[in-house]
Structures are given as C-alpha cells and as structure tokens.
C-alpha cells in the first residue's frame, strides 16, 4: 500500500479522487486486486486459432493438437488469437448525464478510474490499450499503444471535454467500430441511459465485427435505489424536459421501469454474448474489479472446460 493512501480495507472512490494522479490511482487499485495473473481473465469468448507452439509442462492437456502429434510424434498446443498479444479499446461515455453525482464522485470521474485501472491491467501484461471518448459524437480516439502515457492522456482528455447530451449510442459505437483496425477486447464504460434497442444495436455492431465486448454499466446509487424524499426537480434523460414532483409519488413507477430496463439490457447483452456488469459508483474500485475478474474467470472456465 502506498504511503500516500490512508489505511483502508478497500479503495473508496472519494479516497482515490483525493490522490489526483490518475496513474497512481490505477496502480493502487490494480496492485490491490486479488486475482493474480490477468491475461486469462481478459481472454475473449472467441477461440479463433492463431498458431502452434511446442507443449510445455503445465499446459492443459485439452490444448494439445492430437492431429499434429499423429503426424510428428511431438506434442504441440494450440494457441488462439485471444492468447496472443491483443488490443484493448476502452470506450468512455462523457455525455452530460455522466456528470451526475449523489455524493462527491460523479459517474464520469468513476468511469475515469475504471478506465485507468483496466488500462493499467492491460499494460502490465504488455498488451496495447486504446481509448475513445464520446458523447453526441466521438470526441477523442487514441489508437492502441503499450505505454503508460495513455493513462495520463485519459485524464487530460476528460478534463478538456465539455460534456453535452448524448444522441444515439448506436451511432457512436458504430463510428468507433469503424476506426478499429483489428479484432479487439472492447470495454464500454457508460450509464447507458438510452433506449435499450439503440444500445444493443451499437453493441451488436461491435460483436458482428468480431470484437469481444464488456459493458461496465456505471450508475449512481441514487439511480439504482431512488432514496429521494420530498419535492425534487428531476432532470430528464439527456434531452427530455425536467420534472418537478414529490419523490414518493413516482418512486414505485420509477423503480419498476428502471428494473425492467436493467433486465432488458442484461438479457440483450447475454443474447449477444456481451459481458455485462452493473457498477455502483459508491462501491470501492477494487471490490468492483475483483468481482468482475472472478466472474469473468468463472465464465471462461465454463467455456473452455
């Protein structure tokens, strides 16, 4: 644990915000994870064959190519594209709804921590990470690279952007997909406050292009729980008109509609083989990422068993 951090069991987002240096934030988060080597956790669902290498002690028996053994009397294992060096693209939603914060850390600030931490994982395993930032259009695109400097660029680009309401998320994901030069591991960090069919259309484009897609659905706890009391003025989704009312009058309808939206989004992601995780911005970063990596490892173990 760095001497810059107070002694806490987990890395609270408000503690991370006080650090200031995004690379330090990413290092503290990632080095506190309890998942060991991350390469297998970032493996995609794709099993596209890449090449062979000679069998080494510790390799899984199921990876041996028995046809090659029959021809050569030597053991060779199959390597797949996801096991070779890969590109990871982190897509950050910087639209105006991401500025919401019921506490001290907005969804956008939390998204920045998530993006930097995921980038740090990728860079530590000597792979390349790229970055896209979007709202009503793609505001920034950095092609994949394998240097830590990209973490500092995440911070600077997000500081420079003045968020505006997001238009169709499908259009933005479509545009980003066209910029990617090869199949990649794509991490979408967004509150996804939009029409579910529109969201799924954008994610489907990435999947149809052969990318392995992860969605980190980043939401404020007040959006998830609606604990408001008394009279409030609620802003609409992106360009909708605000509504002033008593919170108690709309709580039940809000929660029913919001949970139905979450269920539809999860089901759609599952059908499209998109790895979906809800992220509560009040939770410590290392808790969120530990759960994400363990869940992903369990999924991959099932796919490869």
Helix-strand blueprint:
Blueprint lengths: L12 H7 L2 H10 L17 E6 L11 H7 L3 E5 L6 E7 L13 H18 L3 E7 L3 E8 L3 H12 L8 H11 L5 E6 L5 H13 L3 E8 L1 H5 L5 E4 L8 E4 H25 L3 E6 L4 H20 L1
Parallel strand pairs: 3-4, 3-6, 6-7, 7-10
Antiparallel strand pairs: 1-2, 4-5, 8-9
Helix pairs in contact: 2-4, 4-5, 6-7, 7-9
Q: In short, what is this structure?
A:
By secondary structure, this protein is an alpha/beta fold. Helices cover 42% and strands 20% of the residues. The chain has a 6-stranded mixed beta sheet with strand order 5-4-3-6-7-10, sandwiched between helices.
Overall SS class: alpha/beta
Give the CATH H-level superfamily of the largest domain: von Willebrand factor, type A domain
Query: Helix coverage percent of residues?
Result: 40-55%
Identify the CATH class of the largest domain: Alpha Beta
The total number of structural domains is 2
Largest beta sheet, briefly?
Answer: 6 strands, mixed
Strand content: 15-25%
Instruction: Give the strand line-up of the largest sheet.
Output: 5-4-3-6-7-10
Order of helices and strands: HHEHEEHEEHHEHEHEEHEH
Spatial extent as radius of gyration: 21 Å
Which of globular, elongated, flat, extended, rod-shaped describes the shape? globular
Distance from first to last alpha carbon: 36 Å
CATH architecture of the largest domain: 3-Layer(aba) Sandwich
Point out poorly predicted stretches: 1-9, 44-49
């Amino acid at each position: 644990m760095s001497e810059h951090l107070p002694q806490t069991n987990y890395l609270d987002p408000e503690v991370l915000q006080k650090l200031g240096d995004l690379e330090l934030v990413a290092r503290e988060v990632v080095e506190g994870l309890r998942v060991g080597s991350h390469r297998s956790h970032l493996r995609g669902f794709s099993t596209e064959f890449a090449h062979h290498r000679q069998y080494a002690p510790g390799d899984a028996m199921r990876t041996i190519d028995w046809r090659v053994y029959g021809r050569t009397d030597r053991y060779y294992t199959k390597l797949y594209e996801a096991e070779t060096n890969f590109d990871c693209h982190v897509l950050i939603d910087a639209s105006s709804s991401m500025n919401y914060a019921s506490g001290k850390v907005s969804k956008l600030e939390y998204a920045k921590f998530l993006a930097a931490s995921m980038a740090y994982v990728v860079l530590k395993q000597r792979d390349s990470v790229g970055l896209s930032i979007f709202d009503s259009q793609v505001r920034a695109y950095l092609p994949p690279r394998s240097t830590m400097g990209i973490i500092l660029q995440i911070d600077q680009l997000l500081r420079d952007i003045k968020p505006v309401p997001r238009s169709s998320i499908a259009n933005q994901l479509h545009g980003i997909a066209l910029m990617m030069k090869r199949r990649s591991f794509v991490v979408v960090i967004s509150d996804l406050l939009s029409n579910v069919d529109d969201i799924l259309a954008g994610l489907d484009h990435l999947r149809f292009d052969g990318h392995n897609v992860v969605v980190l659905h980043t939401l404020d706890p007040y959006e998830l729980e609606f604990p408001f009391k008394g009279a409030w003025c609620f802003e609409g989704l992106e360009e909708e008109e605000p509504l002033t009312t008593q919170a108690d009058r709309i709580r039940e309808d809000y929660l029913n509609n919001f949970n139905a939206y979450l269920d539809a989004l999860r089901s759609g992601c599952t059908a499209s083989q998109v790895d979906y995780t809800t992220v509560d911005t009040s939770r410590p970063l290392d808790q969120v990422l530990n759960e994400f990596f363990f869940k992903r490892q369990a999924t991959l173990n099932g796919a490869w068993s």
